[in-house]
Amino acid sequence: DTAVSQTPKYLVTQMGNDKSIKCEQNLGHDTMYWYKQDSKKFLKIMFSYNNKELIINETVPNRFSPKSPDKAHLNLHINSLELGDSAVYFCASTPQRGAQSETQYFGPGTRLLVL
Amino acid sequence: EDKVVQSPLSLVVHEGDTVTLNCSYEVTNFRSLLWYKQEKKAPTFLFMLTSSGIEKKSGRLSSILDKKELFSILNITATQTGDSAVYLCGLTSGTYKYIFGTGTRLKVLA
Question: Which of A13, A22, B49, B86: CA 20 to 30 A from A109?
Fold first, then answer.
């Protein structure tokens, strides 16, 4: 069974479009994250939700809007896509804080290409 | 500002060589240091380090943390072509924050 899943795996779209990426984890974790990884493999945190509440919101354009309908899901909606948004977007989750492990479990990534 | 710096940025070795990857950091509220291996897809967890001087081992890989000098190393002995990957070092800071370095790209030639 997939622990952290993302859809779609690949997304090719035109500049100016609006798109969404979905993430689901079946690990029972409380905290979920979105990361952007550029072509040089730099992994940068974008957002984090703990139990449906936004707890980290890094310097990200407000065209990016996360939504967490429940603690197992964290979706990312992007408005007015730009060329610079092309990257791989990873979803990740971690157990409740105070747990023994702070290991992050990553989804397979969504490769976004904006033309 | 919290940051993680990895070196070297890339490395090419031959099978059987031993490699040492470095991770230095600055952080205001250190909780743990994490190493990940990333091949073609998602990063996969290798080690979590919280205490200085205690080596963690998994097969041919080992890692150690020095909280006084603010760095960690990841050693890989008897490298194999399957070790070719990007190795990411990350920190947890404060309650929820994760910060990653730019990674070291390792290529092992047969």
Answer: B49
